Amino acid sequence: MKRLRRMLSLTVLIMGIGMLVFGPDNGPKAQDTPTKPIVILLSVDGTVNPALADYIIKGIEHAQDKNAACVIIRMDTPGGVVTTTKTIIKEMINAKVPVVVYVAPSGSSASSAGALITVAADVAAMAPGTNIGAAHPVGGGGQEIGSSMSEKIVNDLAAYIRGIAARKGRNAQWAEQAIRESVSITAKEALELGVIEIVADSLPDLLERLDGRKIEKEGRSFTLSTKNAVIEKVVPGLRFSILDVVANPNIAYILMMVGGLGIMMELYNPGMIFPGVVGSICLLLSFFALQVLPVNYVGILLIILAVILFITELKVASYGLLSIGGIISLALGSVMLFETGETAMRVSWTIIIPTVAMVSAFFILALGLVFRAWMRKPLAGSQGLVGEIGIAVTDVDPQGKVAIHGEYWNALSDTSLLKGTKVRVISVDGLHITVTRSET
Predict the structure, then answer these.
(1) Does residue 427 carry a catalytic annotation?
(2) 312 three-state secondary structure
(3) Among 36, 96, 152, 419, which one carries the catalytic annotation?
(4) Alpha carbons 136 and 150: distance in angstroms, whole number
(5) Sign of the torsion formed by the C-alpha atoms of 130, 135, 136 and 142
(6) Do 389 and 426 contact (CB within 8 A), yes or no?
């Protein structure tokens, strides 16, 4: 008992010493060294597309993980897809860090979708010699949209941007004019009209002007600390570069079709290698693009059904009904592939029609070759002997031997055939053939 008490006392003593030595309040204290604030810089230099949305969303998430002072989106864009623009704006509004949009360098512009993104920023800034505006919506190829549809889109966008501008304390009237009348203004005019808050000559100048600015964002208050901040650039990288190209719905659709054709050619002719390799690469690139595009899975299923119907046509004699069903399914799947009412995010008819025609022609050609192979007379094996001409090397009455292609066969004949008579094979039964006199 006494020994047990000693062990307990020793244990308590050791624990006490350990707490004294290693405890957080008694160890050597590190001096509080001030750390420089971090500012995440994203660069937008091109159209607003799904690839850009992916880049900006990941950049904002990175800034939140880093507990950055703010995110600066340095922008120069002619515009882009409205649905993608709304995705970016939604991410900016709900970000847990302040988002600054800076239209720069001089000579840059925030046109169309870029104007909407700038108006939605927590702080909007421009460099001298830049412009903003011209946000009237147009079709995917830059063409005017039909009057009834245009009116709906314009009204929707005008209400959308007016609400955001009012929420951010900016000139809502001008924002609506940019949509309805496609007006465009310089950096100086934008500052005077209350569209932006800052005109800054350079990025260091912008950081100086941002320092100490108070921002109210989703019920939270932020005081920007950007003086002498460490700027961390988020480089788009190879993923963005590839996605920027293939995220175009037309490109993604063509890659999918070419990929499917390549795989089918490899399956029809095993060992060709090249079609299989190219098809696999194209198919994987199309799947990569589908990550960020508004895909309608019914459209994908219809395209898969079309392929199944074409393949089944090669196995089942449907007299072309399966091929017709495959063509219809492929055309409907192509039209329905991307689920959006926006022209820029749908596959163009100028792409759909020739692509469906090319794919259909490929399968119909393959079907014709298969039927031809079925109807062709066998060239090898026992069935290949039927109709061949030979010479009787013995009398055939009713049995004998004949020579065909240098081979000797046991032959049967309903008529008597003398040695040296030309004979024609009419049937084959195992190692015996039935022959008749040849007239040629």
Answers:
(1) no
(2) helix
(3) 152
(4) 10
(5) positive
(6) no
| 434 within 8 A of 411, measured Cβ to Cβ | yes
Inter-residue contact 79 to 48 (CB < 8 Å): yes
User: Would the CA dihedral through 411, 417, 423, 425 be positive or negative?
Assistant: negative
Side by side, the strands of the sheet bearing 109-111 are 109-111, 131-133, 184-186
Residue 293 · residue 345 · CB < 8 Å: yes
Q: Is 152 a catalytic residue?
A: yes
Closest CA to 239 of 285, 188, 192, 307: 285
User: pTM for the whole thing?
Assistant: 0.63
Q: Residues 6 or more apart from 119 whose CB is under 8 A from it? A: 161, 164, 165, 168, 170, 175, 195
Cβ atoms of 392 and 417 closer than 8 Å:
yes
3-state secondary structure of 402: strand
Phi, psi of 432 (to 5 degrees): -115, 145
Question: Which is it for strands 407-412 and 432-437: parallel, antiparallel or unpaired?
Answer: parallel
Residue 81 contacts residue 50 (beta carbons within 8 Å): yes
Determine which one of 112, 286, 323, 329 is catalytic: 112
Q: Structure tokens of 192?
A: 């005077």
Q: What is the DSSP string of 142-168?
A: SPPPPHHHHHHHHHHHHHHHHHHHHHT
**Tokens 């292609």 belong to which residue?**
405
What whole-number distance in Å separates Cα of residue 132 and Cα of residue 86? 18
pLDDT in tens, the chain (440 residues): 444 444 444 344 334 434 433 344 333 333 333 478 999 999 998 888 888 888 999 999 999 999 999 999 999 998 888 888 999 999 999 999 999 999 999 999 998 889 999 999 999 999 999 999 987 665 444 444 445 556 777 888 889 999 999 999 999 999 999 998 889 999 999 999 999 999 999 999 999 999 999 998 877 899 999 988 999 999 887 877 788 788 778 888 888 888 888 887 777 777 778 888 888 899 888 888 777 777 888 888 998 898 888 877 767 767 778 888 888 998 999 888 876 655 556 788 888 888 888 888 877 776 666 666 655 655 555 566 787 888 898 988 888 999 987 788 889 888 888 888 889 888 888 778 888 888 76
**Which backbone phi and psi does 40 adopt, to 5 degrees?**
-90, 125
- 398, 412 contact by CB (below 8 A): yes
Q: What is the rounded CA–CA span in Å between residue 233 and residue 208?
A: 18
